[in-house]
Q: What sequence folds into this?
């Protein structure tokens, strides 16, 4: 039996709602769920089903309300400095997220004796991301790892770090942060934060730089 375009539309809407529930990032979940529910509400109108369009219209309102709250709420951010080789919690954190870290930043290697330092970014006192960096010289800081847990990848922690915490690292000087990656998703992330794309080596690893004047 051939499906009509209305049935196909309703099926696509229901699939979108189902897919939204697989999202780890809460913001993306709400956005996709709202779009899917809106489409399903339209489907309810097309087939003349009052329960379908009323229920899904209500879901759209709830999703939009939560998205507005997420945008309007000012989270508290804090930074905790950590010794990457002495902190047991940091070792546990890295081990727990290691597979995901290697997916986006496979170049990262935490080697003793290389001058690595680390900072946890806390959001409402929850450790949501970690920065591992080292001073290459007085004016260049290499970021070896910039990782956020999946449920907090909305750029807010990164924007806080590079507007506040990184200024403290610069300590009143004009410095340049540099990070190297071959992963397209990570490259797009760096460009959104204002990093400038540089040269790409034979292995396909591209260098990104961002200048900053410390407070």
A:
């Amino acid at each position: 039996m051939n499906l009509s375009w209305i049935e196909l539309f309703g099926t696509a809407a229901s699939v979108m709602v189902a897919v939204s529930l697989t999202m780890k990032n809460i913001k993306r979940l709400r956005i996709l769920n709202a779009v899917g529910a809106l489409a399903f509400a339209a489907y309810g109108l097309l087939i003349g089903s009052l329960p379908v369009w009323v229920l899904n219209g209500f879901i759209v309102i709830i999703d939009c309300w939560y998205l507005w709250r997420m945008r309007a709420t000012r989270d508290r951010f804090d930074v905790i400095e950590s010794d990457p080789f002495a902190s047991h919690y940091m070792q546990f954190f890295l081990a727990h997220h290691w597979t995901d870290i290697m997916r986006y930043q496979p170049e990262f290697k935490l080697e003793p004796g290389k001058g690595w330092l680390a900072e946890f970014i806390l959001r409402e006192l929850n450790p949501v991301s970690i920065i591992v960096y080292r001073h290459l010289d007085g004016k260049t800081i290499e970021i070896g790892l910039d990782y956020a847990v999946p449920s907090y990848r909305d750029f807010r922690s990164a924007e806080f770090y590079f507007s506040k915490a990184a200024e403290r690292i610069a300590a009143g000087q004009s410095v340049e942060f540099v990070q190297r990656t071959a992963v397209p998703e990570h490259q797009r992330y760096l460009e959104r934060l204002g990093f400038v794309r540089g040269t790409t080596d034979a292995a396909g690893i591209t260098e990104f730089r961002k200048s900053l004047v410390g407070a």
